[in-house]
Design brief:
There is one protein chain. The chain folds into two domains: 102 residues, Alpha-Beta Plaits (2-Layer Sandwich), CATH 3.30.70.100; 116 residues, Alpha-Beta Plaits, CATH 3.30.70.100. It has an eight-stranded antiparallel β-barrel with strand order 1-3-2-8-5-7-6-4, surrounded by five helices. The chain is of the alpha+beta class and 267 residues long. It is built from ten helices and eight strands. It is globular and about 55 Å long. The chain starts with 6 loop residues before the first helix and ends in a 6-residue tail after the last strand.
Length: 267
């Protein structure tokens, strides 16, 4: 049996064999590869039916998002969970310029008088009337060739899809990242209508290694058309049958949810 190629050799070989998903110009994405890579904080607020949602909306809209932007973070996306685990709840996606900015944000909020006043009803909630049922936080780092979030077309009349791909080990996870970041898969996404918002490697989480990305669509019908076109694309079919790049070799599972932006979401 031939020796297994490393992940970059596999991607190079597929391109040389005509399996590449996009032209060299499309893959190069001038100016992107040297840009600083954002850190994404994904907060998942678990709620129960009742007043929690209204109070959280008020806090995020009037206190947290304005203060986070003053602190140099953002954009901040806020999404309800339409299809998937965690409803009722909210996903809050915060773009940080660096890990240092993530670490510094709590201190900047504490020193912001306007934030202190606006956040008082939320942060002062009592144990008998808590602000949320639970809070999960995941940190991610943007891909080298997709270093910043793309805010998309705005919150009105759009849906979003949040997907996480899990792998069995570090080499497999890195190979899957390379398929997206340098192998042309993102360029193919754009071509078929799978409009990306961000692509990132997960730094924390329960089932590492993994990567997470977000897409946006005009509506569910547009989503279905785009995924159908993607699945039938000849280049994609060739790529996923390439030895070393098949799903059974590098992907152990996918988490998926459909989200709706709130009226005050910046993404």
């Amino acid at each position: 049996m031939a020796k297994m190629m490393d992940r970059r050799s596999m991607l190079t070989a597929t391109a040389a064999a005509g399996v590449a998903l996009a032209s060299d110009d499309a893959l190069a994405q001038p100016g992107r590869s040297t840009a600083p890579r954002e850190i994404y904080e994904l907060r998942t607020y678990r709620l129960v039916n009742g007043p929690m949602r209204e109070r959280l909306d008020t806090y995020l809209r009037d206190a947290f998002i304005p203060a986070a932007r003053r602190a140099g973070c953002g954009p901040v996306g806020v999404f309800t969970i339409t299809i998937g685990a965690g409803s009722p709840g909210l996903h809050v996606l915060i773009a940080h310029p660096s890990i240092g900015d993530f670490v510094a944000l709590p201190g900047k909020l504490a020193a912001d008088p306007a934030y202190g006043r606006a956040s008082a009803p939320f942060v002062g909630a009592t144990p008998g009337d808590p602000p949320y049922a639970a809070l999960d936080v995941k940190l991610m780092q943007a891909f080298p060739h997709f270093p910043r979030v793309e805010a998309g077309g705005g919150p009105n009349g759009r849906i979003f899809e949040l997907r996480t791909y899990h792998s069995h080990g570090q080499k497999a996870g890195a190979t899957k990242i390379d398929m997206f970041d340098t192998g042309g898969e993102i360029a193919l996404f754009r071509r078929v209508g799978l409009t990306p918002v961000f692509f990132a490697q997960d730094l924390t989480g329960a089932r590492l290694p993994s990567l997470t990305y977000m897409l946006t669509f005009a509506d569910m019908a547009a989503r279905e058309r785009a995924w159908r076109t993607f699945g039938s694309d000849p280049a994609w079919k060739r790529l996923i049958t390439t030895p070393g790049l098949t799903d059974p070799e590098i992907t152990t599972g996918i988490d998926n949810s459909i989200l709706a932006p709130t009226s005050y979401s910046q993404i």
